[in-house]
């Protein structure tokens, strides 16, 4: 597939400012900006994944699971999220038995509006739009900020624990996956994506092979300013070495699992 990927430009502004963005209007504040991002749209080839078993989480930053799930997309999310979380948690326990505990803490619905991507910004109460810029939801520090927000008062509990964070979209699940510490403290963020209905080739998720990313030169930390918290993620600068992939005709029982970050930057992530 020949398409474009929206990267963050290597702008001189980042010599004096940290990258940031908001998800709500700030026009009422004099001199305020919603973001200091400059877009770098690049033509790229996004290849269809031919052999799902080839991709390894600890090598490429993502892997693909096939598992049966039951989710009624026509019910309100609060009516189905607990049962859905249980299914996702059971699937992850089966495929990643090293985790001793899996706990969901967020559920978000994404549905592309008819004006997207021509109009891609703006907060929606009904649903979020697909992400339009190459990114990772959590940086090394951003994972801890999310834990502090979602599990207030539990800093001592998570101290010196090894855990991952996962997410599933078009409904996406974010969770903490804690395992007993068997080596020096290492933390990572994993995501799990699946469509509500399928197969889907409308704005499919594109994944960049971690082995093609220069982590010293290509990654930019970004403050994600929300209505109720400030998080930190990572944005991607263009590099011609990047190799992008997508899962053609992804069905409701096809799950993309990928890692966002780890605190030491030593494990493959997406």
From TrEMBL:
<protein>
    <submittedName>
        <fullName>Uncharacterized protein</fullName>
    </submittedName>
</protein>
<dbReference type="InterPro" id="IPR044053">
    <property type="entry name" value="AsaB-like"/>
</dbReference>
<dbReference type="GO" id="GO:0016491">
    <property type="term" value="F:oxidoreductase activity"/>
</dbReference>
<comment type="similarity">
    <text>Belongs to the asaB hydroxylase/desaturase family.</text>
</comment>
């Amino acid at each position: 597939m020949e398409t474009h990927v929206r990267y963050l430009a290597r702008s001189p502004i980042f010599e004096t400012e940290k990258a940031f963005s908001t998800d709500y209007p700030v026009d009422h504040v004099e001199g305020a900006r919603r973001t200091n991002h400059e877009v770098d749209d690049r033509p790229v080839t996004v290849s269809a994944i031919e052999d799902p078993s080839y991709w390894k989480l600890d090598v490429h930053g993502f892997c693909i699971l096939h598992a049966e799930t039951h989710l009624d997309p026509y019910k309100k999310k609060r009516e189905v999220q607990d049962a859905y979380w249980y299914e996702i948690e059971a699937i992850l326990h089966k495929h990643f038995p090293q985790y001793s505990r899996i706990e969901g803490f967020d559920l978000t619905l994404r549905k592309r509006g008819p004006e997207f991507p021509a109009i891609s910004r703006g907060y929606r109460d009904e649903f979020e739009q697909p992400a339009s810029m190459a990114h990772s939801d959590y940086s090394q520090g951003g994972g801890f900020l999310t834990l502090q927000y979602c599990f207030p008062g539990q800093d001592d509990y998570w101290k010196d624990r090894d855990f991952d964070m996962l997410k599933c979209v078009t409904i996406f699940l974010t969770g903490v996956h804690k395992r007993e510490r068997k080596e020096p403290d290492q933390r990572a963020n994993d995501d799990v994506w699946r469509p509500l209905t399928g197969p889907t080739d409308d704005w499919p998720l594109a994944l960049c092979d971690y082995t093609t990313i220069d982590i010293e030169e290509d990654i930019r930390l970004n403050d994600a300013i929300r209505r109720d918290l400030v998080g930190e993620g990572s944005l991607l600068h263009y590099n011609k070495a990047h190799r992008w992939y997508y899962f053609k005709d992804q069905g409701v029982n096809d799950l993309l699992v990928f890692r966002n970050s780890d605190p030491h930057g030593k494990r493959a992530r997406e």
